[in-house]
Write a structure and sequence with these properties.
- The protein is an alpha/beta fold.
- The strands form 4 sheets. An 8-stranded parallel barrel has the order 7-8-11-12-13-14-15-16. The chain has a 6-stranded mixed sheet with strand order 1-2-3-5-4-6, with helices on one face.
- The N terminus is likely disordered.
- It starts with a helix and ends in a 13-residue tail after the last helix.
- β2, α2 and β3 form a beta-alpha-beta unit.
- It is 41% helix and 13% strand.
């Protein structure tokens, strides 16, 4: 019998306690590691529900079948999942597991499935070590997660969640990861043992950190370091190989991304500096890239940036020559040793241009693609960002582009609006232009949850951020694989997770609350993360505006390419008696109030139904309420700014009185918002806007009243920076 279990095909028959429902699962060896994962998921779901079905997972390669595609063929109780490859079999198997969980297995029919977007990824700024930081390391979430980055348990959980939600690319972003992940024979003293973090207070000196990543590691941080984990460089290499093996068994490609030129972790050894003209630095980078490729056979590629620390007298030409001499030649060196290796290079279109890139990289020996910031830092704004429009004609099928989809909008709240996500995804360029996308924040770490007050599970471990925001991750992953999935599917998914309440009302509350952040971000646009963090109404206190006052809203600009009027644009159109075709500021406020009111009404109906034992549901409803109250705050603030603009122009005292009334309402809404936020979340240091302490910001929210009370008509709306 033991020998039978080792056969390449496994058949298991289970019977429910009543004997009524029979279940069997056959998983052919052709499905590989991904198929084994799907098999385990099916068994786990079937063990909790009586399931009458005979399920088979297999791979049948067809020349015309798209990668990751699969077919489901049903004859009575016999269900065959036929993948075009291992990933396709896994995705089909996960469909079956989900159908068992949601009680819809009986309705599974013959169907064909293929990915809408070929590569669907996560952007993960990874805090490897105090000495080799990422772009986000001067933050609470990064410092708390350094140890987690060296936990296989964490990566197993994270990668499994990715596969369940149909993501197949993991991009790991670090300023200069090499000392923490590889040994370079020519520079042996640089490889770092152990994992460090700093115990120094980062809050007070926050403004001393550059938003461009330079000076991320300061001497006083190193002086106050502690060793978080004892581990040799050889053990680190074995660790990352194991992570990549696990990702491979979930159909996931892994990439390292770097910014340049950073030499963190080199310890001023061998004469290495950040200077582009330093020959030793060039040689060190070339050798480090070579060894990274050779050390990690599962590594799918490298992504590079011609910034943020790459000033060169010859501009883009000089920067591209440096990148080719280091990354290009380093990869070439490795591929001469491993000529069968297919290794992708992704070149970000950040602080450079297409022409110098294509000229310098014309001889790259593998897949070569670009990467573009699709929505700058705010994916939760427009359903169809316009920034890429001028670039698209220059993108060819030979060198397609990836889309960097930055989420620096929602670090705290549970979000879920499939209408928005579906439109965003289907509005992306087609496959002739698009290689794939990866989404993620620069200002927060998607590791374990150190933001929620109630983030510790029964086993004592902190939950993943993914588990808090599971519905959002599910929407973006599933819809990027198949945007035809209807809203009813996601409504049932929510209902299965929280069966004590009306699935229809819960889904409606999710949608209405999730419309608030996109609406206000389209109106009060700040493109990069240090310009706008909507959950706290914050921007960088020194390099931008700090907390946004009523003055800022009065003088603000709207998102480019969107049919939304700023207050000044709207007033000019009215004055010129032009036809009003765009959304006006009063209409923005009305839309925010409508979604907030809808959400709050639904919550009064949902809360009496909610099971006391469903702690996650209570937190979810709290997030919906918080977003609704934030929507009311922004609506009142916008109305206050509209009236202040009128008072500034006309000196009509009635408009000042109205502006004051709205500002007082806004403050009341902020206080309610702060109370709910504080109940669920802790203050946190964010690397781009400083400390987000919502209750403490109530003092800032109150300043609008004094601004309006002391306003002098005819004042310049745009306050000059000191």
């Amino acid at each position: 019998m033991k020998h039978v279990l080792t056969l390449l095909t496994v058949l298991v028959a289970l019977t429910s306690p009543t004997g009524a429902a029979s279940f069997s699962l056959t998983n052919d060896h052709s499905t590989g590691g991904p198929g084994k994962f799907a098999e385990a998921e099916i068994r786990r779901e079937a063990a909790t529900k009586p399931t009458a079905a005979q399920i088979t997972l297999t791979v049948e390669k067809e020349a015309k079948a798209a990668a990751q595609s699969y077919r489901i063929v049903r004859v009575g109780a016999n269900i065959r999942v036929i993948g075009a490859d291992e990933s396709g079999a896994m995705y089909g198997g996960l469909d079956i597991a989900e159908a068992i969980r949601m009680g819809t297995l009986d309705s599974v029919k013959d169907s064909d499935h293929k990915p809408h977007i070929e590569r669907r990824g996560i952007k993960f700024n990874i805090p490897l070590d105090l000495r080799t930081p990422s772009y986000s390391d001067n933050s609470t979430s990064a410092q708390a997660n350094i140890t987690e980055m060296w936990s296989l348990e964490f990566w197993h959980e994270f990668i499994d969640r990715m596969a369940q939600d149909r993501y197949n690319v993991l991009t790991l972003w670090n300023l200069h990861p090499f000392p923490s992940i590889v040994k370079v024979p020519e520079y042996p003293k640089i490889a770092l043992d152990d994992v460090w973090r700093t115990t120094a207070d980062l809050v007070k000196p926050f403004e001393s950190f550059s938003p461009r990543g330079t000076g991320m590691v300061k001497p006083w941080m190193l002086e106050s370091h502690e060793v978080e984990k004892r581990i040799t460089i050889d053990e680190k290499i074995a660790f990352w190989r194991a992570v990549m093996d696990h990702a491979h068994d979930r159909g996931i490609e892994v990439y390292w991304f770097t910014w340049n030129v950073f030499t963190n972790g080199t310890g001023d050894q061998y004469g290495i500096t950040d200077d582009l003209d330093n020959a030793t630095t060039r040689d060190y980078f070339r050798k480090s890239v070579r060894e990274t490729v050779l050390t990690y056979p599962r590594l799918a590629g490298i992504g590079i940036t011609s910034g943020e620390n790459m000033e060169h007298k010859d501009g883009s030409k000089g920067k591209e020559e440096w990148l080719w001499a280091t990354y290009g030649e380093g990869i070439n060196d490795a591929l001469k040793i491993q000529p069968e290796r297919k290794f992708r290079l992704i070149h970000r279109l950040h602080e450079t241009g297409l022409s110098p890139i294509l000229k310098q990289w014309k001889d790259y020996p593998g897949p070569f693609e670009f990467s573009y910031k699709y929505a700058v830092a705010h994916m939760y704004a427009s359903r169809s960002p316009s920034f890429i429009k001028d670039l698209l004609p220059e993108i060819t099928p030979e060198h397609r582009t990836w889309l960097t989809v930055r989420n620096d909008d929602l670090y705290s709240f549970r979000w879920g609006d499939p209408d928005f996500a579906r439109a965003f995804i289907t509005n992306m360029p087609g496959p002739e232009k698009l290689a794939g996308f990866y989404m993620g924040p620069d200002g927060y770490i998607w590791g374990r949850d150190f933001l929620s007050r109630d983030a510790v599970a029964a086993d004592g471990r902190r939950q993943l951020v993914w588990d808090r925001q599971w519905f959002s991750f599910n929407l973006w992953g599933r819809l990027s694989y198949d945007p035809s999935l209807p809203d009813s599917h996601f409504q049932r998914l929510l209902g299965t997770r929280h069966p004590s309440v009306s699935a229809e009302k819960l889904f409606a509350a999710s949608q209405s609350s999730s419309r608030i952040i996109p609406q206000v971000t389209r109106f009060n646009w700040g493109g990069i993360d240090l310009h706008w963090y909507p959950e706290a109404n914050l921007s960088h206190p020194k390099q931008y505006k700090g907390y946004y006052t009523v003055r800022h809203f009065m003088a603000g600009k709207t998102m480019p390419g969107e049919d939304v009027f700023s207050i000044s644009e709207w007033r000019k159109a009215l004055s010129a008696k032009k036809a009003i075709t765009a959304q006006t500021p009063p209409e923005v406020a009305t839309a925010l109030e409508r979604d907030a009111d809808t959400t709050l009404k639904l919550l009064t109906e949902l809360r009496p139904q909610a099971a006391v034992t469903d702690k996650e549901l209570a937190l979810t409803l709290g997030d919906y309420e918080a977003q609704a109250l934030l929507g009311r705050y922004y609506a009142a603030k916008i109305r206050s700014a509209i009236d202040l603009a009128e008072f500034n122009a006309s000196a009509d005292a009635a408009t000042q009185t109205s502006a004051l009334k709205h500002a007082k309402n806004a403050l009341a809404h902020w206080k309610q918002y702060a109370a709910i936020y504080d109940r669920q979340y802790t203050p946190q240091l964010l690397n781009r806007v400083g400390t987000a302490d919502i209750p403490a910001l109530t003092t800032k929210a109150a300043e609008d009243i004094e601004i309006i009370r002391t306003w002098k008509p005819g004042t310049e709306p745009q306050q000059k920076r000191k």
